[in-house]
Amino acid sequence: MKTCFPDIPDKILFEGPTSKNPLAFKYYNPSQIVGQKIMAEHLRFSVAYWHTFKGTGMDPFGAATFRRPWNMGKTPMEQAENTLQAAFEFVQKLGVPFYCFHDRDLAPEGETFSESCQNLETMVAKAKKLQEETGIKLLWGTANLFSHPRYAHGAATNPDAHVFAYATAQVKHAITATRELGGSNYVFWGGREGYETLLNTDMKREQEQMARFFHMAVDYAKQIGFDGQFLIEPKPKEPTKHQYDFDAATVLDFLRAYDLWDYFKLNIEANHATLAGHSFEHDLTVASLNGKLGSIDANVGDPLLGWDTDQFPTDPVMCAKAMLVVLKQGGIGKGGFNFDAKLRRGSFDENDLFYAHISGMDTFARGLTAAHQIIEDGVLDHFIEKRYASYGEGIGKQIISGRESFDSLEKWILKKGEPAFKSGRQEMLENIVSSYV
Question: Which of 23, 145, 159, 417 is surrounded by the most beta carbons within 10 Å?
């Protein structure tokens, strides 16, 4: 197959902040040392197969605007092979170490389940060969349990046991494919694991079904020796109105309730966090402080729109706040920063894919270096430590140690009176963070 990106150099290079070349990195220098690691190891960037190569530009109000040359094959499998070649050309030229896919992105669904499995096996073999040739690796795989009409009422939470069984069989092959390709993680995104109305829903039963589904997945991973990290990706809504994986806190509570705590971490997406009414750094922090931040979907939503717009991140301050969480937990481990982001409908040129990814990578690189320096200088840590200093001595230390009660604290207040009123200095701290970016 001929190159799909003839106008793009063999590799996008770092040229520094003064460069005017739109096909060069201004801040992302993969070999630059930040702390104890190079930038590429900190960020572990990944390209999302579905948006980048299978996206069409279609939205609820308009037809497809993308006319990708790799999607023009005579048969679905020919299109799949063309797409695979284009994907590896793109990832190699961009200089990203990882990619991610849904099973149905990599290989088309067949007329029967057996044919679907055979299609996947064929494409996995081809992807494995390209991985060996290029050194590109699989960050994670997952199964599409939301697009086909059979999953209209969910997969693991479906009221029909036949659909539940189909979903488990599909996931079995997706996990196998991920293992075969050396994937570091496997992600569960329950796009339709929720409900539209309680008038026809047994919520307790559905959550128990979902827990059983996850336990089966854990058992199968042990059976085949898959040592990758299992990740659950929270999302509050869209397409389902009420989803059981609403946000990080909801998923963590679910894991505790159903004896799944030891087997899963979370894949936090910025746009999903904001749809849940949180900031990106909030859900990252909730996951991290529980030791469950496993990977990140790097994107952003539009605050003027109420759905999952999956845009490329362009705000370095947001990325700096996110990187503060990641750096303080010691890095992202087996996870990475996957660009689960898509071009706007009017950006239909193939080269726009490069401009978007370069921008997103530069933005996170700025966030990384800023966050590292903020931590090195201790400007936030010193303020926070001072703000809570009263709990390190006197009555505060007594409270934390468990030696005080309502009665004893009432007596203390009667002696001490009204507390002093102290500023939280939010605007000052926001200005400090901005100054590092």
Answer: 145
Choose among 315, 338, 297, 342: nearest CA to 139. Answer: 338
Contact yes or no for 313/281 (Cβ under 8 A):
no
Taken as a whole, the chain contains a residue count of 437
- SS3 call for 276: coil
Annotated active-site residue 102? The verdict is: yes
d(CA 237, CA 380): 34
Output b/e per residue, 268-285; b: 16+ Cβ within 10 A: bbbbbbbbbebebbbbbb
> What does pTM read for this prediction?
0.96
Of the residues 102, 272, 357, 372, only one is catalytic, namely 102
Q: Which of 103, 105, 247, 362 is catalytic?
A: 105
**Distance separating alpha carbons of residues 42 and 29, to the nearest angstrom:** 11
The residues, ordered by sequence, that sit 6+ positions from 258 with a Cβ below 8 Å of its Cβ are: 207, 208, 211, 214, 215
10-residue stretch averages of pLDDT, the chain, 437 residues long: 88 98 98 97 98 92 93 93 97 98 97 98 98 98 97 97 98 98 96 94 98 98 98 93 96 98 98 96 98 98 90 98 98 98 95 98 98 98 97 97 98 96 96 97
Nearest 5 degrees, angle CA 406-CA 253-CA 250? 105
Q: How many degrees, rounded to 5, is the angle at CA 277 between CA 386 and CA 254?
A: 90
Whole-angstrom distance, CA of residue 183 vs CA of residue 292:
19
With contact defined as beta carbons under 8 Å apart, do 139 and 185 qualify?
A: yes
